[in-house]
Amino acid sequence: MSLSPTAAFPRLPRHLAVTSAAAFVSLLSLIPLGFIGWIAFDSGWETVTSLVFRPRVGELVVNTVVLVGLALPIAIVLSVALAWLTERTALPLRRTWSWLLVAPLAVPAFVQSYAWNTVAPGLHGLAGAVLVSILAYFPFLYLPVAAQLRRLDPALEETAASLGKSPSAIFFGVILPQLRLAICGGALLVGLHLLAEYGLYVLMRYDTFATAIVDQFQSVFNGPAANLLGGVLVLLCFALLGLESFLRGDARYARVGGGAARGVTRRTLGRWALPAQVLVAAVVLLSVGVPLFTLGRWLLLGGAGIWQLDSILPALGQTAFLSLAGAALAIVAALPAAWLSVRAPGRVARLVEASHYYVGALPGVIVALALVTITVRVALPLYQTLATLLIAYLLMFLPRAMVGLRASIAQAPVELERAAQSLGKPPLIAVWHTTIRLAAPGAFAAAALVALGIANELTGTLMLAPNGVRTLATRFWAHTAELDFSAAAPYALLLVLLSLPLVLLLRLEADRVTQ
Amino acid sequence: MSLLELRSVAKRYRDHLAVGDVNLSVAATSRTAIVGPSGSGKTTLLRIIAGFETPDAGAVLLDGQDITHTPAHRRGIGYVAQEGALFPHLTITDNIGFGLGRADPTRRARITELMDLVGLPATLRDRRPHELSGGQQQRVALARAMARKPRLMLLDEPFSALDAGLRETIREMVGEALRASGIASILVTHDRAEALGFADHLAVMRDGALVQAGTPEALYREPADALTARFLGDALIIDADMEDGRAMSIFGPIETNATGANGRATIMLRTEQIAVTALDKAQNTNGPTGRVLSQSFHGARCRLVVEAMWRSDESGDNKSLTVETSSLAAPKVGAVVRLDIIGTAHVLTRQDD
């Protein structure tokens, strides 16, 4: 007969292996924060106060807060409205629309910005930054909200109706509160992206912390000014995390009770059909139509001359390789912490999670800066290698992997793990055969999100790429910086095309999970 | 006048007829159970009454008013879903008070009263649904549905997710709470024991049609056909020749409820209508006898499979039958028993000569 490991070693803390793995990954992800702390300490209090408490920093704080404070609420309202229209109403062409509403994910934010620069050269500053931010990032909210809407048990809404609640009361009293988790998760992701985004705001001529840090870095390589600005940005990010955690509360993920959920009845829109159709069409037109139109125009203007295959093909291959390798790495690294945060939520899990999130909010340049300094001072052989670049990607995109994994693990009932253990499987094997298997589709979606992010990553790659590594994004940026918009167009097109299959995957995944 | 009336209600999903031409009336304060195998259309019928589905044909009348096209939230009909469908984001108090106005001055008192009525301890007030057991969740679901004092309550298999012991307790509690409040109810279930135990009016559905409706006892004793007979309980169904209202069966002549009938017929006997008595080897009897093939103990009752020992070559069917007896001094396996018929048999079908 065989003893279960828990019986054999009763004194071991629960989930020791998983906790250690999660702790290791979070230690790794703490490197950039440790780096900034160390720089602050190393620079001395006087340098810190003189670099942080100055009008310029105040201005950047206001700029960043105003940007996030405007873009996030608009994006939330827009995404919930769009998700409700495509999931719960008899909107004509709703399936097509729901595909097109995810499509902006294939357009990198800086390409979106480049398109708007061409179409509306007068649009810049706060208005331009808010508009393009929303258009580039709202699908990160739309996708989870739509998925959650599909998942909701219609019995809840029916019961509310039997209790005399009107459709609008049901929406605000029953549906909306249950979208809270999806909204919080999506809004956090969008907010973190806004804090980290660089290319978009450079082209929109709107100063945020991210652009200021890169400016500093470019003028004074490895200076304390950029590092300390990064420190303030980390604080902003913590504020966002705290807000999300507060709003999310301890709400339960799984629905009460089991059983198969019944299909929903879709609401007919009546006289609202036309305005609804116009809203959805306008969003698609602005977020997908404008970039495609601009790209098409530059490609036509450029003709055959802009297709220099000897530099385009290597960039394509390298981008694909980095994306896939980075995605695989991120998923493996996020798995222990994601599992812990669902199965054994507590202070440790929160800590681990938070340490992952904050790196995601750091602009690529901060992670890059930290890795540059550390490799130069401590591990010189790793300086400017693929390994360092992949670690940077891992640190930057862990949150994406975490969010997706956590949500999909939360969908798998813990009872299955217990059942597998009672059938004689050791704990880790039991988790592998039940939760991991069930969460696999979600993990795949999370991997796609990570790969998408890496393919579009710009600043970190610019700084960390070993000699000879030139991705589509860095090539595109080089041409854009020289205002050669036409030569940049093939790279933009390839970035979009490369991201398309991932968008398809994501969307199909969302369909599959909820059927 | 009846509280609820369904007139020729029909509902079709693409090529599948879910409910076809159903007529049903429900009296005020009555308790109706709609029973049938899964896929028989009983849940669809309930959803039509609740207003979650609109029938393709026919009308739904509440208090004589046509509510066929009234949206669910204006019907004032209570509804308890299969799994309770508690709002996971609300506390127990807020779940129960969901249908009451926030500013309602009687709200608090009403919630306390309802929790009391369904047997929920006040300590659960601020809990969340997932912190409650399945039985408690259903109690909350019932209290919530009763809050607005509906005159009709729809129960969609609300006990099926509960374990057997609890099921009966909750069922009795629900029946008692509804009776005390004078609320008529319609229970949908596939469990015959549940239906028989709950209802004073039973409706059997099969393939989208209402096969038979009446009191539980009438349906149990005199089912319309063999399928209904078997669905509602263990039955012995045999062919027999009728002679002036008596069935000439393998048991000898049995009185039936078809007075004066003649010809071939199919008759039904409930298991409890057959009494077994152990015989000594030496004893002789003219009546039908059998040998006990197997015995299973069920506490108070004992279930026997008896092989008939008469005219065994003739028809080939019903050579063995299941009977129940008191478990006190039940005949052992191998024992020879005498079989006596109690009461009259019910004639299911008849071909007159």
CATH superfamily of chain A: MetI-like
Rg of chain B, nearest Å:
25 Å
Helix content of chain A: over 70%
Topology as H/E string of chain B? EEEHEEEHHHEHEHEEHHEEEEEEEEEE
Structural class by SSE content of chain A: mainly alpha
Q: What's the domain count of chain B?
A: 2
CATH T-level topology of the largest domain in chain B: Rossmann fold
What is the CATH topology assignment of chain A?
A: MetI-like fold
> Order of strands across the widest beta sheet of chain B?
6-7-8-3-9-10
**CATH architectural name of chain A:** Orthogonal Bundle
Q: Largest interface, with Cβ-Cβ < 8 Å?
A: A-B, 28 and 38 residues
What number is the mean pLDDT of chain B?
87
Query: What is the domain total for the residues of chain A?
Result: 1
Total beta strands of chain B:
20
Percent of residues of chain A in beta strands? under 5%
What is the molecular shape of chain A?
Answer: globular
Helix content of chain B: 10-25%
The fourth-level CATH homologous superfamily of the largest domain in chain B is: P-loop containing nucleotide triphosphate hydrolases
> What portion of residues of chain B belong to β-strands?
35-45%
Q: How can the largest sheet of chain A be summarized?
A: none
DSSP helix count of chain A? 25
